[in-house]
Design brief:
The complex is a heterodimer of chains A (484) and B (262).
Chain A (H helix, E strand, L loop, with lengths): L28 H8 L4 H26 L8 H12 L9 H12 L8 H18 L4 H21 L4 H20 L4 H17 L1 E2 L1 H20 L4 H30 L3 E2 L9 H27 L4 H16 L2 H15 L8 H27 L2 H9 L4 H31 L14 H8 L8 H29 L5
Antiparallel strand pairs in A: 1-2
Chain B lengths: L19 E12 L2 E12 L3 E5 L6 H8 L7 E6 L2 E2 L4 H10 E4 L11 H11 L5 H14 L15 H13 L5 E5 L7 H16 L3 E5 L3 H7 L2 E6 L2 E6 L1 H6 L4 H11 L2
Parallel strand pairs in B: 3-8, 3-9, 6-7, 7-8
Antiparallel strand pairs in B: 1-2, 1-4, 4-5, 9-10
Classes of the chains: A mainly alpha (484), B alpha/beta (262).
Keywords (chain A): Cell membrane, Membrane, Transmembrane, Transmembrane helix, Transport
Subcellular location (chain A): Cell inner membrane; Cell membrane
InterPro entries (chain A): AA_ABC_transptr_permease_3TM (IPR010065), ArtM/GltK/GlnP/TcyL/YhdX-like (IPR043429), MetI-like (IPR000515), MetI-like_sf (IPR035906)
Chain lengths: 484, 262
């Protein structure tokens, strides 16, 4: 025992300590096991219990998976093969159904001769997404675009695409690869044009239709430029109203006239031929692309100081969130026809996309509102104090931060919406999970097959949703600004 | 008394002109039923350096936040640089682009680099070409002595550095008036000095400044007028020497004895 305690002795440090390396963490499998699985009696019992449960589950399903059959023309043939190989009474999975009905699961009832068209549209989708999703990651972008180019062209050749379209796809894909090395932002032009292009590739018909749709925003832009010097408000209204007038009143006629003068059409495919993952992905991607901007607008509207704007947003969001999606889909398929003038042919997939978008947008709005509310008030004040007007403050300061905060919620909404696309089965569309599996079972050769189609479709959905989830985590990491 | 101001002050450019920068007449403000600002009359001439002091809740922050309309006043008139603040958004934005503001918690934009923080408003509000805005920003970052941090994000800087960036960000808009809302209250003592040095330099160049601060050393060194507020009213104002050595009101005496005492 000493009566001079360290703190009571005068002390001056004459040399400052340099920073030292942190101690190396002790490693080793045994140590890990001891610390994590067998650290005490309770923990040991739980570990053993867990192992037993896993063993119980695996032992039940193992032989079924192990006895998989990949090559058979019918369920009875499958069963015969299993019985011959593993003896009478053995169970086994018959994946042959996926192999045989693969095209149906992917393309639905799309004309087989035109399978290359959705394939090309899907490939070009990645060109459209690359500058948006991977704008600051040239390495990943190169890999994605490179793989897309090879796979798309290979599949198109395999599916018998015409030479002219092969050349077109090759030029776009290789061109995108080259442009993305230097000027990624130029690819955004393609991203903007892609929706119309994609619609044309999928549904076919005259190219003048999408072109005339494109004229709408151009007219709106001209109107804005002409009116802007006179009055900002009038210019905004004109820029919004004129395209709508054009689409409703003149675009269809103009497209028909143009088509009769210079024909530029590819074979049309009706909406009832769509099905399987083609349908899910078409609805899912459209819904995702449309619901985000709509959700942002709704979230801003709900936080607006203007009573009317705010009330409309609240009513819309609360109404849509309070109604099941299936109810909205029934409205889309049945009720909408009563309200529209007789004779209007409003495509069922388009109607479903609108409903799915509205549904997802209402949820999106609430997710983004959470992000907006999480921003410190000081950010708004600093933007105000610098003289930024409302829209500039939102675009440059508020939304980039609020959206970043909301990424997990936004992606959750996307994932939920993508899975909800299977509900279109209730309005007679061929979703991959229910309708397609029913269609497969309706044939005599696959009558009675039950688990395999569901597991397969579930697995594909899992892959896509898991990819979205991983992307959101990558994006969060990339946008982190706290410590670097 | 604060020992943070050690160097002699160059007063050659500290000139107060006859021109009126801010004119506040009979201004009143309420939060709900609470009367925060009562009959405020204040005229600020170009080149003046005014320190506003007072106990917390006395309305001093609210007063300077009314000058760029972060807070709305309900009665009376505020004229800034010849423009009256009304509900007209155009006037408000015009005033805001002429009046710089520095906040207690810096309020830098965390998703932008230091340089982007400084060039954002010049590019989007003043429509200055990017290259030119960046040159100006670098000049002001050099002035606040952190040009080497230009490409870092605010989260990587210390509090004092962040506040100096915030001052540079305001200066990049080339404001005619600078408002400081307790700029050193969230800082460590070591960092207070670096921020005050920057503010003193600004004063030496003749900037019109209104500072809400508890740094009485700063007030004595550079202010030409000290305003004492309590309960939403201006209780006393005077030139610093008189204010500190010979306060008139009992409330001021009490306040000064509390913050300068020991």
């Amino acid at each position: 025992m000493s009566d001079t305690h360290a703190q009571t002795v005068p002390f001056v440090r004459d040399t400052m300590l340099p920073p030292a390396e942190p101690p190396i963490k002790e490693a080793g499998a045994m140590r890990w096991l001891r610390e994590n699985l067998f650290s005490g009696p309770v923990n040991t019992i739980l570990t053993i219990l867990g192992i037993l449960i896993v063993w119980f589950l695996v032992s039940h399903f193992w032989d079924w998976f192990a006895h998989s059959v990949w090559n058979a023309a019918s369920l009875s043939e499958c069963r015969q093969i299993i019985a011959e190989t593993w003896g009478e009474g053995a169970r086994g999975a018959c994946w042959a159904v996926i192999r045989e009905r693969w095209n149906q699961y992917v393309y639905g009832f799309y004309p087989p001769a035109l399978y290359w068209r959705p394939t090309m549209a899907f490939g070009l989708l990645f060109v459209a997404l690359a500058p948006v999703l991977f704008s600051e990651a040239p390495g990943i972008r190169r890999i994605v675009l490179g793989l897309t180019t090879v796979l798309t062209l290979w599949l198109m050749v395999a599916l018998g695409a015409p030479a002219a379209w092969l050349v077109f796809a090759a030029i776009v894909l290789v061109g995108a690869l080259a442009i993305s090395e230097r000027h990624v932002s130029w690819l955004l032009v393609f991203s903007v044009l892609y929706p119309l292009m994609g619609v044309w590739f999928l549904w076919g018909g005259s190219a003048w239709g999408p072109i005339m749709v494109l004229v709408g925003p151009v007219l709106g832009w001209i109107a804005w430029r002409v009116m802007h010097p006179l009055s900002g408000m009038v210019a905004v209204i004109a820029a919004l109203v004129i395209p709508v007038l054009w689409w409703v009143g003149y675009a269809g006629e103009a497209a028909r006239d143009a088509e009769s003068i210079v024909s530029f059409a590819i074979p049309a495919v009706a909406s009832d031929r769509f099905g399987g993952f083609l349908l899910s992905i078409t609805i899912g991607i459209s819904g995702i692309a449309l619901s985000l901007p709509l959700g942002i607008v709704l979230a801003l509207a709900r936080r607006s100081d203007m009573f009317l704007v705010k009330s409309l947003a609240v009513i819309f969001i609360e109404f849509i969130r309070g109604v099941p999606l299936i109810a909205l889909l029934f409205v889309a398929s049945l009720l909408l026809n009563y309200f529209l003038p007789p004779g209007t042919n409003f495509d069922i997939i388009l109607r479903v996309i609108i409903m799915v978008t509205l549904f997802a947008a209402a949820y999106m709005a609430e997710v983004i509102r959470g992000g907006l509310a999480a921003l410190p008030k000081g950010q708004y004040e600093a933007a105000d104090a610098l003289g930024l007007d409302y829209w500039k403050a939102q675009r440059l300061i508020v939304l980039p931060q609020a959206l970043k905060i909301s990424i997990p919620g936004i992606v959750s909404t996307f994932i939920g919406m993508f899975k909800d696309t299977t509900l279109v089965t209730f309005v007679g569309l061929y979703d991959p999970l229910k309708s397609m599996s029913d269609a497969v079972r309706a044939s005599t050769s696959w009558k009675g097959i039950y688990w395999e189609p569901y597991i397969f479709v579930g697995f594909i959905f899992f892959l896509i949703c898991f990819a979205m989830s991983r992307y959101s985590m990558y994006l969060e990491r990339r946008l982190a600004r706290d410590h670097r | 008394m604060s020992e943070t101001i050690t160097r002699p002050i160059d007063r050659s450019h500290m000139l107060v002109s006859d021109e009126i920068a801010i004119d506040i007449r009979n201004m009143n403000k309420w939060y709900g039923t609470f009367h925060v600002l009562r009959d405020i009359d204040l005229t600020v001439h170009r080149g003046e350096r005014i320190v506003i002091a007072g106990p917390s809740g006395s309305g001093k922050s609210t007063l300077i936040r009314c000058i760029n309309r972060l807070e709305e006043h309900q009665a009376g008139h505020i004229v800034v640089d010849g423009i009256e603040l009304t509900n007209d958004i155009k006037n408000i934005d015009k005033v805001r682009s002429e009046v710089g503001m520095v906040f207690q918690h810096f309020n830098l934009f965390p998703h932008l680099t230091v340089l982007e923080n400084c060039t954002l408003a010049p590019i989007w509000v003043r429509k200055v070409p990017r290259r030119q805005a960046e040159e100006t920003a670098m000049r002001f970052l050099e002035k606040v002595k952190i040009p080497e941090q230009a490409h870092k994000y605010p989260g990587q800087l210390s509090g004092g550095q962040q506040q100096r960036v915030a001052i540079a960000r305001s200066l990049c808009m080339q404001p005619k008036i600078m408002l400081f809302d307790e700029p050193t209250s969230a800082l460590d003592p070591e960092m207070i000095k670096e921020v005050l040095d920057t503010m003193i330099e600004l004063a030496e160049e003749g900037m019109t400044m209104l500072c809400v601060t508890h740094e009485m050393g700063f007030a004595q060194a550079v202010a030409n007028r000290v305003i004492f507020m309590d309960q939403g009213q201006i209780v006393e104002q005077n030139e610093p020497r008189e204010f500190f050595n010979n306060p008139k009101s009992e409330r001021t005496k009490l306040f000064l004895s509390q913050i300068l005492g020991h």
